[in-house]
Amino acid sequence: MNWTEQALDKLTEGAKNGRYDKYAEIMKQGTLDALRDFCRQNSEFAQAVVQGGSFEDCMKAVTKNCRTGISDLEAYRRAVQFYFPGAEVRFRMELDLCGGLQDGPSVMLNLADFW
């Protein structure tokens, strides 16, 4: 089994079996999904997850001093740094005013209208 598979298994099991306070419970699924994606992106990070602490301890580090809340980006940064100190998470957002339309509005024709 490779590092990525091992990391995904470890994170999944940790999410199921850990004990989480109310803050960690709220952020757990999003953080888990982000960590899974990062493991798929980078095998060195996946190795760090396998060789690092538990997901439960990771979530404790994420929620430490979060008081009234933290952004998703900050939660993911804390989670990544729990397993790989010094690593950073970058986020990119784009505004699409056309709702994803590639070449402008589409037109649907009913060929029966031409008979």
What does this protein structure show overall?
The protein has 115 residues and is mainly α. It contains 5 helices and no strands. It has helices at 3-17, 22-41, 43-51, 55-63, 72-83. α1 (3-17) packs antiparallel against α2 (22-41), α2 packs across α3 and α2 crosses α5. It is elongated, with a radius of gyration of 20 Å. The N and C termini lie far apart (62 Å).
Give the topology.
Elements: H1 3-17, H2 22-41, H3 43-51, H4 55-63, H5 72-83
Helix pairs in contact: 1-2, 1-3, 2-3, 2-4, 2-5, 4-5
Whole-number mean pLDDT: 89
Shape: elongated
Q: Give the biggest beta sheet.
A: none
Topology pattern, helix = H, strand = E: HHHHH
| CA-atom Rg in angstroms | 20 Å
Number of strands: 0
Give unreliable regions as ranges.
none
> What is the terminal separation in angstroms?
62 Å
What proportion of the residues is helical, as a percent range?
55-70%
Distinct helical segment count: 5
Structural class: mainly alpha
| Portion in beta strands | under 5%
Q: Notable features of this structure?
A:
5 helices, 115 residues
Briefly summarize what is shown.
The protein is mostly helical and 115 residues long. It is built from five helices and no strands.
